[in-house]
Amino acid sequence: MLTIHTADAVFGAGPRCDAVAVGGGVIAGVGTLERMAAEWPQARVRRWPGLMTPGLVNHQAVALLEAAYHPDPREADELGTDPITGDALAALPMGDARWGASARRGLQRMLQHGTTAVAGPFHRPPVRTAVARSGLRVRDPRQGHDVAATLDVFAVQPLSAVLGGDLAEGRPADLAVFDVPVDELPARALRLYGATTCLATVLAGRLVYRRR
After folding, report:
1. Using a CB cutoff of 8 Å and minimum separation of 24, what contacts does 23-26 make?
2. Prior bond to 121 cis, omega within 30?
3. How do residues 19-76 score in pLDDT, each as one tens digit?
4. How far is 118 from 131, CA to CA, in rounded Å?
5. Which end of the chain, N or C, is less surrounded by CB atoms within 10 Å?
């Protein structure tokens, strides 16, 4: 079923463009909601405030998944909720099952920050399995991306470095929506307000995260 996602603005599109139509895992069209609703009257329409962008790439995913432990919510009283690294991680008994569960939680947190692709390669077998099953796209590592590992990629890299593609017809339907002001430059607004403002993440046309 075709879905039209509409927001206050669409990154990289014309000034009047406010919608992206997706179907079969690819982008079917970019333009105004009025035009696309007329072209595809049976399409489902999802309305979001803020700015729609291509899905993001987390270039430090290896560090986030293989050198950090994402606590289970049931461990929050003991371990907190933030990723555990360094000496604190070394003190934890980490078997394959625990690494796999941690990776699954870490990947879900990435989706909650608009990430649809991660840079590999991943060396721990349970982490590789978790990434493969998540559906997130895996990219080759790139030089010049040696930055702090964080879920909020806007905080450490320029916008051009973290966008996973283009919102254009025929491209993979990977996108994210951020609740940021659209009367500011996108790069400034996204860096200022951060990826924690993510409202929705779409991967291969599927809505994989929606803020409640």
Report:
1. 23/173, 23/205, 24/205, 25/172, 25/173, 25/204, 25/205, 26/170, 26/171, 26/172, 26/173, 26/205
2. yes
3. 999 999 999 999 999 999 999 999 999 999 999 999 999 999 999 999 999 999 999 9
4. 9
5. C
Per-residue confidence (pLDDT) for residue 159, from 0 to 100: 95
List, in sequence order, every beta strand (DSSP E) within 59-181.
Answer: 115-119, 137-139, 175-178
Amino acid residing at 169: E
The pTM assigned to this predicted structure is 0.94
Residue range 70-102, pLDDT digits in tens? 999 999 999 999 999 999 999 999 999 999 999
How many residues belong to the chain?
A: 212
Alpha carbon distance 7, 167 (integer Å): 13
Cβ proximity of 64 and 113 under 8 Å: no
Distance CA 164, CA 118 (A): 9
Residues contacting residue 199 through CB under 8 Å, at least 6 positions apart:
48, 49, 50, 177, 178, 179, 210, 211
- pLDDT tens per residue, range 108-134: 999 999 999 999 999 999 999 999 999
Dihedral (CA of 207, 209, 211, 212) sign:
positive
